[in-house]
Amino acid sequence: MPDAALGRVARVEAWALRAPIATPVITSFGTMRDRPAVFVRLTGDDGAQGWGEVWCNFPGVGAEHRARLLIDTVAPLVTGTAWTGCEVLWRALDRRLAVLALQTGEPGPLAQAVAGIDIAAWDLSARRAGQPLWRHLGGEAGRLGVYASGIHPDAAVATALRLHERGHRAFKLKVGFGSDSDARSLRELREALGEGATLMVDANQAWAPDTACAQIQALAPMRPLWIEEPMAADQPPEAWARLAANSPIPLAAGENLRGDAQFDAFIASRALAFVQPDVGKWGGISMCRGVAGRALASGAGYCPHWLGGPIGLLASMHLRAALGDSGWVEWDANPNPIHDRIKDRLPKPCEGKVTLGGEAGLGLDLDMDDFGSLVTWRGQHRH
């Protein structure tokens, strides 16, 4: 897939949003007590615009920090240059920020800010071309599978049945809360949804390498399609390969990997049956499409990770659709008032599938006034 011309960027804007929720989103490693987001908008010299999103779920102050980082540090490197391609822009930013990432000890937040810029750049490029992003990326059809994610063991059955009524047919349960509890929750979910439902489980890096296999064995009778992040993502590929060789459930990971070298080492190890880069955490569209292509060429599945706002969700969908509909995109099932403000403008699942429209770019134009008091910070940089 070729790169796409971008042109000159005249303005970069960022908004931090934070939405109160009644029920916290609980994982094995931490809790989200509200729903944050960082939206990015690029405006070209010709007035064309593109939207992106930065991953910012953790820590609790992450949204405002990343929005300010993007405007104060990254945006001045973006404006004023006539960029010959989106990937050219990403590589230039990655190179220019490499020493700063070492100096600050913040390679993750900087990578996330650059990823948000990259998503917006591809949206802008596709809009200029008058094409939906999935077609701009070389896709033939805007159709893909989705799975409902983030289902907590508390009220898991009721949650899944409600999501089934909304068109979902694949469901991912959070585990890592105790062996007996995990197995019971997954068994109840299988019994309630039946053999036709696709189930996945996500341990969020909860288990040590020497105990992960036993934990996985307890879940195997319920036949989940994959076990996601059963141990820390920074365990070497060789450790993941050993676990994969002894696991009755295929392994999935990728949201916490960063950089081509790291992804390629995991792909080469063949430890992962499903590779899950996150377009808002590292690489944006430009680099994640390369990772996805190499994963698919190796025989692994490509299933983008996303647990955030609507822009990142759409970007993940368009990239997955551009590469065919053989995998799933993660659809956050937790309450999110940010989504709710524009839910009628997002695609809806039907029998586990989503069909993207033919509107240019991501197909989403936002009026930030719609989010009102949810906006906690706004900044911009002009050339």
Rg over CA atoms: 20 Å
Helix content: 25-40%
Order of helices and strands: EEEHEHHHHEHEHEHEHEHEHEHEHEE
Structural shape: globular
Treating each run of at least 4 consecutive H or I residues as one helix, how many helices? Answer: 13
Largest beta sheet, briefly?
Answer: 9 strands, mixed
Structural domains: how many? 2
Distance between the termini: 31 Å
CATH hierarchy, class of the largest domain: Alpha Beta
Give a short summary of the structure:
By secondary structure, the protein is an alpha/beta fold. It is built from 13 helices and 14 strands.
Structural key phrases:
single chain; 383 residues; alpha/beta; Enolase-like, domain 1; TIM Barrel; 2 domains; nine-stranded mixed sheet; 13 helices
Walk me through what this model shows.
There is one protein chain. By secondary structure, the chain is an alpha/beta fold. The chain folds into 2 domains: 7-133 and 365-382, Enolase-like, N-terminal domain (Enolase-like, domain 1), CATH 3.30.390; 135-355, TIM Barrel, CATH 3.20.20. It is built from 13 helices and 14 strands. The chain has helices at residues 62-78, 86-96, 98-104, 107-129, 133-136, 156-165, 179-193, 209-219, 237-246, 260-269, 284-298, 310-322, 337-340; strands at 7-26, 31-44, 49-54, 82-83, 143-151, 170-174, 198-202, 227-228, 251-253, 274-275, 301-302, 328-332, 353-355, 375-382. Strands 5, 6, 7, 8, 9, 10, 11, 12 and 13 form a 9-stranded mixed sheet that branches. Strand 10 (274-275), helix 11 and strand 11 (301-302) form a beta-alpha-beta unit. Helix 1 crosses helix 4, helix 2 runs antiparallel to helix 4 and helix 10 (260-269) packs parallel to helix 11. The longest helix has 23 residues, at 107-129. The radius of gyration is 20 Å and the shape is globular. The model has no long low-confidence stretch (mean pLDDT 96).
